[in-house]
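Supplementary Data S3. Sequence and structure tokens for construct A.
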Amino acid sequence: MPWLREDGDGVVLSLHIQPGAKRSETAGLHGEALKIRLAAPPVDGRANDALIAFLAKALGVPKASVSLVAGQSSRAKRVRVADICAAFIREELL
């Protein structure tokens, strides 16, 4: 899957973020990225914090295991999740 790539002892996700949604949820694929709707507004990094919290909760990992690799101020983001396999992420997020 183009949006999901194993990286050493973790996985890198290519995401398309839609901030300001009614609720936080995954919304299928958007091109070669997984689309995630976030309830948080795109102000002062709140959407980035909400994204990390959403992914950590959805995958059952600590927030410290989820890090933003690229796209700090963009809708297109790359996020790394440590100590997890791609098959588990695919199952939980799709």
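Construct B, processed identically:
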Amino acid sequence: MTDYGIDLSHWNRVTDFGAVRGNGISFASVKLTEGVDYIDPASVSHVNGAKGAGLHTGGYHFARDVNIDAQVNHFAGQLRARGLLDPAALAPMLDMEHADLRDNGNAFVAAFINRLRAVTGIRKVLVYANSDWWTHILRPDEWADGDVFLWIARYNGKPGSPGWSHPRLALHQHTDNGVVPGIPGKVDRDATMPGYSLDQLTLGAAPAPAPNPAPNPAPAPNTYTVRSGDTLSAIAQRNGTTWQELARINGIADPNRIFPGQVLTLTGPQAGRFHTVRPGDTLSAIAQRNGTTSRELARINAIADPNRIFPGQVIRLP
């Protein structure tokens, strides 16, 4: 049986994740990070909405030709913060398409996978590239073991038939012009390849099947779905917090720009389990403010050099 999914970034606005799932979409890969310091501004809303609708949700990292360890640490921090290392999560994906990586792409992929496994403790990894990269640049036989799955982008409108094959090829992005209810505008659509199922591409045991969602399913606990006329300050006031706190934990750069259907994480029991590094932060200062030590923070976050943290990095707290 073929499983169908989508991948999302800030270029995609989703107004109704229930309608998305009702269209037969069962998984979503959400852009979380790029390089060593960028966090996609829609990632929190997309992850909350997709998980709330019962989709198997994963995160992806857009690779740049910069420090690999710093990129992995940045990506892993966001995976943890968004709950995307849980058993039901779609495996994390490495997006290989930046031109600067064409000459050293294979060494980069191998090093990235090894580092991600060491930092997160997970084994399964998805590697995404277009058909040109798979045909002329990437050599998966050098680095794709039994827990690495390939994902090809070839927009031929034939799900599961990309015209290129490999034993580890598991997913086909068959259009970047897809139409899905609940998503105004076009969206990338994906499908599993013959011989592969969604269960193989999640990090662990799949959750119990959810019933067909109502047209407007309730969001996951500790979230709020923005309605027409809402403002961030009004939402904050109704939920006993501040608009500054909502903007911080949801990665909202402009508090005056929220939209109906956006899913916000509210201040709650889990909000204090992570700290997003700000300019001027040091690991020792973060540790002191949270009643722990820099050595403990370095240990639980797999930070090799406690003197090297960067704005936007998400630090797990004990």
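The longest helix spans residues 105-120. The CA atoms of residues 141 and 314 lie 33 Å apart.
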